Amino acid sequence: MRHIAIVGSGPAGYYTAEAAVKKWGENARIDVFDRLPVPFGLIRTGVAPDHQSIKAVARRYEKTAVGDTVRFAGNVTVGKDISIAELRELYDAVVLATGAPSDRPLNIEGADAKNVVGSAAFVGWYNGHPEFAALDPDLSGRHAVVIGMGNVALDVARILSKTEAEFAGSDIVAHALAALQASKIETVTILGRRGPHQIMMTPKELGELLHLERASPRVDPADLPPVEDDAILEPGLRKSVTLLREFAAIPESIHGEKPLSLNFDFFANPNAIVSEGGKVTAIEVERTTVEAGRAVGTGEVYRLPADLVVTCIGYQTNTIEGVPFEERAGRFANDDGRILPGLYCVGWAKRGPSGTIGTNRPDGYAVIDLVDQDFASSSRKRGREGFDELAEARGLDVVSFRDWQKIEEAEIAAAREGAPREKFVDVESMIAARSG
Ligand code: NAP
Q: Does position 376 have pLDDT exceeding 90, yes or no?
């Protein structure tokens, strides 16, 4: 028997569990821990609520989760309720699949002003993550600035632009839907420190901006390099840049039909946040040029009005006591997934925050191959039996997968018309819902 603990129940965690079942079948017991009482991590609280087709992958994780081989143990915070040392004592292998749930900080003057928020917090707010549900961003101003030119920046800009009707069929939480309906935002500026050829946005996501009911994307044609230069780009990026060219060709008359403007501001490096009475009012930006792929300041500085700033500049893994951490990369220090004997990492906690959900699948299979190579011939570990004893002694309130199914039933029952669910946004309500 092999006893495996996986910490984190998002895509990286469940692909790893799936790989363990494929490798060892009934000869393994796999416990998947999560600090929340609900599973699926990024699928539930990261993926945009209007991207339901991406969220459908959770059905695959459910297939892995039901049954006795794999067990969900929610509402358990590793590093607080149980230490890494204790988990390593109990299990043959501990795989950290904790993702990258915190914002990389924007280290510029004034960044601590009110209504300057990171994407982890903002996305967590509209997705009902208990840690961020109370964020309550002020949407009463006219100008929002989104920093970064990746897919998260696109998610945030799109969510800020959509009408109530466009959220039909989504699982955006009620508090966010109400706040967005009352929003007074008229411009959303997406700020990139480099140029159109350096964007990280993928074509499918970028193309959605052409179909928004009340918003229209604007690109200044002067920012675009000569079209022949696109030939050197890899095909995905070339498609994205072609879309930017489409945005640049939209006539003013069409923009005029839409009340909200989505402005792409390239070659614009944030310098400082300007605030009044502690709340952001503008962002100071330095014009850049791109030299050998790097943004170089030109000395030309200007201000953009900003009543809300959302930084979408990447994420980092949360540290856990006893686990070596690579500060610069914002992830666990690891050698291709190995951290210490019996301790591994996978997904964003291993690689840093890049790639699609599907990238985690080969990652999960690879880490299980490592565990298999490292595994001593027979286990002397106590696995879940030992964990259950410890949980009882500590009075931990462990939430099972069956419990989660009851919570989910209650969320589905509470859904507004056409929506898949209305999420509970605090841990207490989630736990209360498990008793039906
Ligand atoms: P990302 O793709 O790495 O983009 C981060 C952006 O922030 C880049 O444009 C980067 O510019 C900019 N940036 C970083 N530091 C900055 C600073 N100090 N000042 C100004 N700009 C700064 O990260 P992400 O958008 O967080 O996405 C994370 C991953 O999730 C990506 O792989 C993404 O594709 C994926 N994702 C996918 C979807 C989807 O498929 N629908 C949705 C959301 C996220 P530089 O390039 O100049 O560094």
A: no
Question: Which CATH superfamily, name and number, covers 103-315?
Answer: FAD/NAD(P)-binding domain (3.50.50.60)
Residue type for position 387: F
As a whole number, mean pLDDT of residues 167-191 equals: 98
Q: Give, in words, the CATH class of 2-101+317-433.
A: alpha beta
How many Å lie between the centroid of ligand 1 and the Cα of residue 172?
22
Indicate the pTM of the whole model. Answer: 0.97
Q: Is the separation of the CB atoms in 66 and 401 below 8 Å?
A: yes
Report which residue type is found at 385: E
Determine the distance separating the centroid of ligand 1 and the alpha carbon of 159, expressed in angstroms. 16
Roughly what angle, to the nearest 10 degrees, separates helices 360-374 and 11-24? 50
HEC profile of 318-384: CCCCCCCEECCCCEECCECCEEECCEEECCHHHHCCCCCHHHHHHHHHHHHHHHHHHCCCCCCCCHH
355 lines ligand 1 (CB under 6 A): yes
Q: Which residue in this structure is represented by tokens 């609280």?
A: 45
Atom of ligand 1 nearest to the CA of 106: 18
User: Using one digit for the tens of pLDDT, what is the confidence trace for 1-21?
Assistant: 999 999 999 999 999 999 999
By percentage, how much of the chain surpasses pLDDT 70?
Answer: 100
Q: What is the DSSP letter of 92?
A: S
Ligand 1 mutation pick, 54, 107, 149, max ligand atoms within 8 A of CB: 149
